[in-house]
Every structure is written in C-alpha cells, then in structure tokens.
Write a structure and sequence with these properties.
- By secondary structure, the protein is an alpha/beta fold.
- Helices cover 45% and strands 15% of the residues.
- It contains 10 helices and 8 strands.
- The chain has helices at residues 2-12, 23-35, 50-60, 74-83, 95-104, 115-123, 139-147, 166-170, 186-190, 194-208, and strands at 14-18, 40-44, 65-69, 87-90, 108-112, 128-131, 154-155, 178-180.
- An 8-stranded parallel β-sheet has the order 7-6-5-4-3-2-1-8, with helices on both faces.
- Helix 2 packs across helix 3, helix 3 packs parallel to helix 4 (74-83) and helix 4 (74-83) runs parallel beside helix 5.
- It is globular.
- The structure holds 3-phosphoglyceric acid.
- 3-phosphoglyceric acid binds at residues 17, 132-133, 158-161, 180-182.
Length: 219
C-alpha cells in the first residue's frame, strides 16, 4: 500500500495543500479538484473541521487520494488514519509521528530542511520526504545539493511552489511531486469559488504534464 500510494503521488506530480473545515467544504473541494483533473489533496489539520473534511472526502470520493497534512503528533496520526487518510504529511521529521504512521502502514512524508533532518528520516526508514519550506531553504538548489550525499532520497518540495516555478522543481529527477496551496487558496474556498479552483488546478495539471517530445531530430 505504501508503495502504491507514493507511486500515485509520483504520477500525479502535484499535491494541492488545502485548508478546509467540515464535510461540505471537503467534498466541494474534492469535486473541484477532480474537475480540474487532479484527484489528490493534502488536507491540513489547521481548522477544527479538518478531520471531518478528510472523512467526508474519503467516504464520498473513493477515487480521490486524500491525505492529511500538518500532522504533528502521534495522536493525530491515529485520528487521520481513522478518518481515512491514505497518506500523512508532517512539517518536520519527528520520530513519534513517523513510527506511528509506519505502525498503521500509512505512507508518511516528513518535512526536512537540512541534511540532519534527511539523516533522521533515513534512519527511520523513510526515503520520500517533504522539503519544507522549500522556497525558504533554498528551493531547487537545495534539492540538488541534498541529492549529492543522498542520491536515493526522493523529495516533495512544498512551501512557495507556484505555477511560475513548478517546473524548476518537477524537472529535478529526485522530485516525485510538488505540493502547494496556490490552486486552492483559502479565500477561494471561503467564497465558494470552486470554478476558479478547478481552473487553477487544470492549469497546473497542464503545466505538470510531460513536455511534448521535441520534433527536432539531432544528428
Ligand atoms: C503549507 O504547509 O502551508 C504548505 O507548505 C503550503 O505552502 P504554500 O502555501 O507556500 O504553497
């Protein structure tokens, strides 16, 4: 299960990081993402109703890969797994969170910002990590630099990723996907502008699609 979920994230290439609360916001958001061609969401535990949103999406949208983000302690791991989260993202590399997710058999992408964080993640058996906050800790250059000592580590950069710099990250071989909120900014949710979320999502999906093969023939 761990491998297949991570494979799906790697094939989708983008993980929307969302702040929603309650079942209705969750399911409306899922509809908007699906309409935009991106059936995945990291629902962050930042609103009281986040857990309900995760449960509602997991129940009503079996085709959507729903994960939980901003998971910072082991009790939250239990709660999001109970709610139906298929993957877990944490801002940092914190052993109790990682161990509990592993006990549940649910993929965990812990946040790393330094080589020491990567070493802790590797020591705990995790090879796919979230670079966070990606733009602050060096962006694509940080991933290139960290890939030298850790060539097997795979990254999901998150924090400051947007349509303009998406490819700077996705073009790196060690990046499986990029996470971000630019498609699903909170004001779009609170105003119910699901159409704009769908538009931004479709735009991001098109951007992330493999570039068309060049028609130039060399040699
Ligand atoms: C977060 O945890 O909020 C994510 O890193 C999203 O960052 P972004 O809002 O810069 O995309």
């Amino acid at each position: 299960m761990t491998a297949s979920v991570l494979d799906r994230i790697a094939s989708l290439r983008i993980v929307p990081v969302v702040v929603v609360g309650g079942a209705d916001e969750g399911t409306n958001l899922a509809d908007a993402l699906v309409a935009g061609g991106l059936p995945v969401a990291e629902i962050t535990l930042r609103l009281p109703g986040a857990m309900d949103a995760i449960a509602a999406v997991a129940d009503s949208h079996p085709g959507v890969l729903v994960g939980a983000g901003t998971v910072v302690n082991a009790a939250q791991v239990d709660q999001v797994v109970e709610a139906g989260a298929s993957f877990i993202v944490s801002p940092g590399t914190f052993e109790p969170v990682i161990r509990r997710a592993q006990e549940h058999g649910v993929p965990i992408l812990p946040g790393v910002a330094t080589a020491s964080d990567v070493m802790r993640a590797l020591d705990l058996g995790v090879e796919v990590v979230k670079l966070f906050p990606a733009s602050v800790v060096g962006g694509p250059a940080a991933i290139k630099a960290l890939s030298a000592p850790f060539p097997h580590v795979r990254f999901m950069p998150t924090g400051g990723v947007n349509a303009a710099n998406l490819h700077d990250y996705l073009d790196l071989p060690s990046v499986i996907a990029a996470g971000g909120s630019w498609m699903v900014e909170r004001p779009l949710v609170t105003s119910g502008d699901w159409a704009e979320i769908t538009r931004r999502t479709a735009e991001a999906v098109a951007l992330a699609a493999p570039k068309a093969a060049s028609t130039d023939v060399e040699g």
